[in-house]
Request: fold
Amino acid sequence: MRKHILVATCAALALAGCQRPGEGDVERAIQDVLSGDENSLNEIMMNVADPGEAVTHFRRTLETQPDSIAAQRGLARSLVRAGRNSEAVPAWARVTAHPEATHEDRVEHADALIRAGEWKKAEAVLQTIPPTHETYRRYRLEAMVADANKQWAKADSFYETAAGLTTRPSGVLNNWGFSKLTRGDFKGAERLFTEAIRYDPSLFTAKNNLVLARGAQRNYDLPVVQMTPVERAQLYHTLALTAIKQGDVSIGKGLLQEAIDAHPQHFDPAVRALQALEARG
Reply:
């Protein structure tokens, strides 16, 4: 592909007219094309390629271009994609120490720290970002940190701001709902999970959390949401376990049987749970 780009560039330069560029201009034009081609490759490696292959690619690039912030950024993002969070943290620290680092780089550094469980360090990084940098990702992380600190009013404010800064708020609404669930605000959690599902009907985590919120209120009916037969069985299973933990054992047994009946194949966890209950009498 690169060969074709070079040919096209040289042909364009040859047809440019009477003002023929000098050799320096030609070299700069070719380098610009090659640079653009490399940027495209970096984007592909960061966003589409296998994460392990992307890590190898960027590490090789850094061997010859150790000061390239694009390669440093690519390595850090690829390590996060690969789930290698302990390696991603120092990689992002190197990016944020670069003279060309941006506020968004610092947001990604904080994200890597949270993934690695280093909440206090993540909070410190977020505090270095000016309040004028208002993005969905920044406020989502601010909300998660406030949650970890049990600063509920601040968490609610950040979650609300984050949800308003994206056209796809299902994930942050689900997080916000789970925060409400852990605080014991089951009605508030139910409302947020329902809203998350409305934005993304395929988000099973929100469906499962919605069932937990309803079950905590001893409402053991499945919510009226879009679900596959397998999801229906899994949600009945979640409801059953919630009922049993709350002492509603007979209801739990019935829900386990519903889970077994709803599943299109054999649902071994539900079968084992029901057998264990029946063995206890």
